[in-house]
Design brief:
The complex is a heterodimer of chains A (203) and B (81).
Chain A lengths: L4 H9 L3 H22 L7 H17 L10 H21 L26 H21 L2 H11 L4 H8 L3 H21 L4 H8 L2
Helix pairs in contact in A: 1-2, 2-3, 2-4, 3-4, 5-8, 5-9, 6-8, 7-8
Chain B lengths: L4 H13 L7 H17 L8 H9 L1 H18 L4
The chains are: A mainly alpha (203), B mainly alpha (81).
Chain lengths: 203, 81
């Protein structure tokens, strides 16, 4: 049954039979959307869908007040469901992989990737840019910022980084956002604007 | 700095897209449903979603979730079996 956004909010806000009916309809929509998006993936079965829908409905009820009313309520709820599902899938995929494996990535000198096939000017620009990057990373980024950034570049999800740091995804995002800002400012201060990054690195 | 060529390229790309003010993943999540609807309708992106688009450019996980959400909404739009 299709409802207007304010009807969803009204019905879900108060305990009772109207909330139960709304939850049953929302459950059916979320389940159908999720099955369409995720069916056939490894580790995704009926039990997975049931658990995900259950967790989603709890989160939806917790966050009702944050629904801004832009777009359909069901779309907002489905976005939450996809987040819940992907968080579980990523956790399973990265189980047993320690953040520690990325800890010494900052260690050595800049890697010399001055591929001569690039031509001497571009190779030299790359080399200078790398040296500047290395300096900014060493002098301005904290160990935690570089660890999170490196882990991300190696594909580790923010949820997993957060779990192992005893933090949360938003905090990890802020950590790497600050790291990116420092890198941008440091490179620009060293005379490397976005144009030179593109010139040096784009294929 | 044991990063591969591709990782350095990805890092520089993310750095070049970095803004002083960005949405967090949770803030982006709150807007993702309506942004996905607009995308599916092929409507021009409203300025209000500028920060959402920027977040999706630099956050691989939110980008992955957005792609799945588009798929989920398409399935939901199909007639029930």
């Amino acid at each position: 049954m299709d409802r207007a956004n304010d009807v969803w909010i009204e019905e879900l806000s108060q305990p009772g039979p109207r909330r139960e009916a709304a939850l049953a309809d929302l459950r059916a929509d979320v389940l159908r959307g999720m099955r369409g998006a995720l069916a056939g993936r490894a580790g995704v079965d009926d039990a997975f869908f049931e658990d995900t829908v259950q967790e989603t409905l709890i989160k939806v009820l917790d966050r009702l007040e944050t629904f801004a009313g832009r777009g359909r309520f069901v779309s907002w709820a489905l976005a939450i469901a996809i987040r819940v599902a992907q968080t579980t899938i990523r956790k399973q995929r990265w189980q047993g992989v320690s953040l520690d494996r990325f800890k010494d990535e900052r260690g050595g000198p800049p890697v010399d990737v001055a591929d001569q096939s690039l031509g001497p000017e571009r190779a030299s620009l790359r080399s200078e840019l790398l040296t500047a990057m290395h300096r900014v990373i060493h002098e301005q980024l904290t160990d935690k910022q570089w660890l999170a950034l490196t882990a991300e570049l190696n594909g580790m999800p923010q949820d997993e980084i957060a779990r192992q740091l005893g933090s949360n995804r938003n905090a990890v995002y802020k950590l790497t956002h600050d790291a990116r800002r420092k890198l941008r400012a440091g490179l620009e201060a060293a005379g490397f604007g976005a144009e030179s990054w593109r010139e040096a690195w784009e294929s | 700095m044991n990063l591969s060529d591709d990782q350095i390229r990805a890092l520089l790309q993310d750095v070049s897209r970095t803004r002083d003010q960005e949405l967090t993943c949770d803030e982006c999540l709150g807007e993702l449903g309506s942004f996905a609807e607009q995308t599916l309708k092929g409507l021009p992106v409203e300025a209000a979603y500028d920060l959402v688009q920027q977040h999706l450019q630099v956050c691989g996980e939110c980008r992955e979730e957005f792609a799945l959400l588009l798929k989920a909404l398409e399935c939901l739009a199909e007639p029930r079996p």
